[in-house]
Amino acid sequence: MVEQTYTNIEIILVDDGSTDNSGTLCDEFALSDSRICVFHKKNGGLSDARNYGIRRSHGSLISFIDSDDYVSPDYIMHLYQALVRGKTDIATTSICIFHDGELPKEHKHNTAVFHMYDACDALEDMLYMRHL
User: Fold this and answer.
1) CA angle (17 as vertex; 11, 18 as ends), nearest 5
2) Exposure check for the chain: N or C terminus, fewer CB within 10 A?
3) Would you state the pLDDT for residue 4?
4) Residues 6+ apart with CB under 8 A from 42
5) Single pTM value for the model
6) What's the total number of domains in the chain?
């Protein structure tokens, strides 16, 4: 996440009670990059951790990236450009599932599909499970 081409970002890491060394690793990342804020809290599940981070964010746009996700260095830039280009509230992109750490051949080139929504359309698509 720190290698994003769009650099005007705040990176919030929420350690919600991990039992491995990831909380310490998050603290080390924060020492090396002023854009990173780390919060440690008791485990309350994924939604609780996300809401905790949202309440502490300072930005007007939010993207969620889970600990087992990989995003390209242009991930935030592409989402931001989609928002600006579409003059819309929400932008989403397609996913690619890795197998054994290898990117499938059909995804080696920029093949991401972006969807832009206003808030009402996004809610409707989520309720009717479209574009999933």
Assistant:
1) 80
2) C
3) 94
4) 16, 17
5) 0.78
6) 2
Question: Is the domain of 63 the same as that of 118?
Answer: no
pLDDT digits (tens, 9 = 90+) for 103-118: 666 555 555 677 777 7
What are the distances in angstroms from CA 55 to CA 10, 21, 38, 40, 68? 13, 25, 13, 14, 23
Query: In terms of domains, do 75 and 65 share one?
Result: no
Neighbours of 79 (CB within 10 A): 21
More confident residue, 123 or 22: 22
Domain termination site, one of 40, 69, 98: 69
Domain that holds residue 116: 70-132
- Mark whether 88 and 40 lie in a shared domain: no
pLDDT digit string, tens, across residues 65-98: 988 888 889 999 999 998 898 888 888 887 777 7
Work out the angle at residue 129's Cα, subtended by the Cα atoms of residues 13 and 88, and round it to the nearest 5 degrees: 65
Q: Are residues 74 and 131 in the same domain?
A: yes
Beta bridge partners of 12: 37
Distance CA 76, CA 96 (A): 16
Q: Confirm if 13 and 39 have CB atoms less than 8 A apart.
A: yes
